[in-house]
Design a protein that fits this description.
The protein is mainly alpha-helical and 95 residues long. It contains 4 helices and no strands. The chain has one domain (6-85). This is HTH psq-type domain-containing protein.
Length: 95
């Protein structure tokens, strides 16, 4: 079993804290101050606030400098594999 990164564990804790906070509100209870709620779970209140607003972790976002879409990248990888399977190199234009 692969070890989980500390950020993954922290994200799990924040998700659990946000879920419990939402449940308390839905049940009609007063969850109290967000600061105290975050302290109870040992997480940053700012991260908890962003998660409650629906903003996910940065690592789940698509990078802005990505050049190819997932479909384009998959097609390029398939093309390279097909060329390799037939023993041909990929044509390269050295401009």
């Amino acid at each position: 079993m692969a070890e989980r990164e500390p950020d993954d564990l922290q994200d799990d804790i924040i998700e659990r804290a946000a879920e419990d906070y939402r449940k308390r509100i839905e049940a009609g209870g007063n969850p109290g101050a967000l600061k105290k709620w975050a302290e109870q779970y040992g997480v940053s209140r700012y991260r908890l606030m962003r998660r409650l607003k629906g903003i996910g972790p940065r690592r789940d976002r698509i990078p802005v400098n990505r050049k190819l879409s997932e479909a384009q990248e998959a097609a390029l990888v398939q093309y390279i594999r097909d060329m390799d399977d037939i023993g041909t190199s990929i044509p390269c234009d050295p401009e």
